[in-house]
Amino acid sequence: MSSKSLTFALFGNLYQQEKSAAIHQVLACLKVHGARVVIDEEYYHFINEMCDVRSILSSSKCRFTTFSGNDFEADFAISMGGDGTFLKTACKVGAKHIPILGVNMGRLGFLADIAPADIEACLQALHDDDYAVESRAVIQVQADGQPLTDCSCALNDVAILKRDTASMISIRASINGEYLTTYQADGLVVSTPTGSTAYSLSNGGPVVVPGTGVLVMTAVAPHSLNIRPIVIPDTSEITLDVVSRSHSFLVGIDGRSEKCGEGTRITLRRAPYNIQVVKRSGTRYFATLREKLMWGADVR
To answer: What's the pTM?
Structure first.
């Protein structure tokens, strides 16, 4: 065990009771390392129904507390779940510049790429400073010049979407004040490189390597076949004006949807901070990409 004392903020998926063994393993590893653990209150109540957190972490060298919202400080944040849980963790971390370690409780993820079986080795690597941190751009969302929600930043993407089964919407898009086009579509996805392999990709957008300084605009089911994704510098300011027959539309920020009234101007720009993602030394993006997208696999 390292003599170095670190504080970890713990977040997790609230719908995976079958993963209690993995949660127990992570808590036990944190105890071995004498870590100070601060647990998201909602997640604490969830996992405490499956295992006695206090007894697992009980040690003279290991202390834990709970917190609500984003009222915490830590050396690292641990996200227990999949990429969706990682995005929620990133929302809570916000501008704190706390590196996030994603422990995947299911299949391999782009963000949550640490298997529970590897957590002990990963924690030791953190104590030994044997890890890498990737800085990921974030999109900031404003509605009529004001933050749309308490967490108005997206690590993956921002989606402007029609509501329910309403007819397609019209989205007038401008870049740095210059008119681009009016999308007649079910919606528009504006993604970071991190989010290029998510909703944007499913609508025909390109894969963009993280760290590339761009944003991708991809239409969702466009009415015109000549509408194509466009890649723009992430220094750009995007303004969107929406017209809808239902007189309202949805703004999805990393999957969290908010209803907006027709006439609300949405402004997107790169946030003044980045999200820090912990990667194991030797992790290779293209290897993950090949595995996740099954490139080269014979699916016949």
So the answer is: 0.92
